[in-house]
Structures
1.
Amino acid sequence: MTQTTNPTTKLSILNLVPVRQGQTNKDAIDSMIALAKFAEQAGYHRYWIAEHHNTRSLVSSATQVLIGHTLSQTDRIRVGSGGVMLPNHSPLMVAEQYGTLATMYPDRVDLGLGRAPGTDPKTAAALRRHAHDISHQFPQDIADLQRYFGDDAVQSDVKAIPAIGTQVPLYILGSSTDSAYLAAKLGLPYAFASHFAPSLMPEALHIYRTHFVPSDVLDEPYVIIGCNAIVADSDQHAEYLATTQQQSFLNVVRGRGQPMQPPVDDMNAIWLPHEKAAVMHMTACSFIGGRDTVKAQLQAFQSRYQADELMVMSHIFDENLQQNSYQMLYDIVQDLNQTAKADLSS
């Protein structure tokens, strides 16, 4: 019998901490906390916050500060980075910061790691520890972090206090195939950023699963797929709400920093044909529609890719409608999981 979805599929949320039109930066952070509290109550597995710099529409530059704030305002949900862009940071400082968070909030902190700067070249140059590009040091930086979070027996003269022994779980993030090889070699969980760069996802997942080497933290591959989702009472309403997502990605294409915009009736009045093509390519990994439509989309997607976890981002302007979308999505995934478990046991 064909399995339609992974029976252990988890559902999580990725938040870039966007500033909606009419909001202040503080309002955006308050919205981040409100969504985290909702996610915990609804049953979402984890809540990750991204790292972006020099982007006026996103308030996610000091990721570790936002993660600490979110942990302090919630009780159970895992909170982490989606992710820390290691070329911008000293591994020692990252270990100190996240080791401190893990000490304050045991078994609730995740550390997602990326090798991109998360910003434009000039800002990347201002952030980096050295004048030259050090992204090639990504594997060594990860090895350093593993040591810093490890037990006393693996420490060197330089130690990250109080990170020792916290064993903060590491996740390798990627939007191309390079990190897939690395995650497989190290036996670490792999999260692919299909929510904005879906084209290489099939190849990257194949590489990761084919080359995976079991490790002390994982016996078999663990795949997290980033995706966009907008669920509403009808397909038509979801497609209308999705114009906020389309405008957000259009800002990326145009290199503009507009705040998140309310939905519009006609995107063709806003974008040019080549811009539309670029946005649709970037957002190809999106589940948009009413309950039945999204359920069918998810079934088809999981039948093909078998994600262990979906890391969802929902660009919806109205915060109540955003929460409704996340609730409906959660219910859909729970239904699919129950169906898959029943199929496996029959």
Note: Residues 1-5 have pLDDT under 50 and may be disordered.
2.
Amino acid sequence: MAYVTIRDVALRSGTSISTVSRALNNSGRISPATKAAIEQAARELGYIPDSRAKAMRSTKTSLVALLVPDIRNPYFADLAYAIQDTLFDAGYCTSIGTSSENGEKQDAYITSMLSQHVDGAIIVPRGGATPAMRAIVEKNVPMVFVDRHVSDMHEVPVVDSDPAPGLSQALNDLHDRGFTRVGYISGPILDSPTFQEREAAFRTIAGTLFREDGIFVESTSFGHVSCASVMRKMRSWGVQAVIFGYSQDAIQAISLMGSRGFVIGKDISLISFDDLEMFTLTTPRISVISQQVQKIGSLGAKLLLDRVEKRGRAESQRVKTLYIPRESVAAAL
């Protein structure tokens, strides 16, 4: 494909390259007739300005980098959509990359986006601070973390969810329905301060409602084999209601229970973090603790825009989680 260049516009309009540049960038003196002729030639040729050249002149690219762990995960797809939509309305384009929950891939993408001279970066981080993240700070590129935070990078503002409100609502609902033993699956907790915070909130709230001997916590991440093992242990211990701190683990468990003949909402009650669309399409529909992902994404984008456009001090923000009860939670047997 041959791109139309500024030289092509100059030839079509019968003017010089420098005159075309002034006309299209509204700089310098130029007669209205000449400007109109150049703009008409640009339209006829389908000329698209080179954003790289524009960035070299202005130091602004109107491009924001977004890094998420896995765009196939419906939660992160919704998050990316909300961020991209908000940035687009403000005149910015979004370059989206995925880290696959891999530290090396994360740093490689960050290094690549720095070479593109992006105006800012929104990152769902994995683990702790890395050399590439530190490089963003050192180069004074505006950066915001969303969904997760990095414990040793307090200088970077964060937009995430507060797990306590939703967990409190969910656990009180289970208590009111007569449950006495409740299980909790934490998800990939070792590398995630977010999952660690969720588990701590569960232990605190559930410990008050059900006492320590009424709660069962499993901190390992699921594969299909470990999922079966954990669910067997919980059932043998008398757990009749399970909360999943990580929606991908809940999906594994739902699949396993179906293959084993368990009826969710009857044999066992189930609640998961993240209000994924698929949870409303299953039978029964799955009760969730919503992080209000659209709100997190929009606030994260607005926070970055405040930093990019230097509109006051950018402060971290927390969105309250919200419990949405559905048919996957029934009365205790």
Note: The mean pLDDT is 88.
